[in-house]
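User: I need a structural model of Zinc-finger protein from Sulfitobacter pontiacus for a docking pre-check later this week. Nothing fancy, just the predicted structure tokens so I can convert them on my end. Input:
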Amino acid sequence: MTDQTVDMPHVDTDERSMKRSLLRGWRRKCPNCGAGPMLKSYLKVNDTCTVCGQELFHHRADDGPAYLTILLVGHLLAPGLHIAFVVWRPEPLTLFTIFSVGCVGLSLYLLPRLKGAMIGFQWAKRMGGFGSTS
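Assistant: Understood. Predicted structure tokens for Zinc-finger protein:
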């Protein structure tokens, strides 16, 4: 028998912390180093991290952050709308104005943070092209 060496592709076996990646994504920072910005505008993702060089263009967040935003805003504001209407009985225009501003404000706050968290999740789970880089 001959001794054959087989070139195995490099496999990244380092453990990636899910919690740390999600928190870094929530802060809109690179899931790898936590220092570089993930987003270059409101929702546009940088191709690479400016600090550590981690490739970020692999992400496939697509409509996920929008769906999560709608889910959270709806579940937070719908009970509040019902309670406010039953307890205080404000004028409909007042109720509409307050909850419209709250809905828009909360949505604008959550959307980029949930996008960052989703990209952090994908990075931690090595989804898409995130598996071959560290």
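Before docking, keep this in mind: DSSP finds three helices and no strands in the chain.
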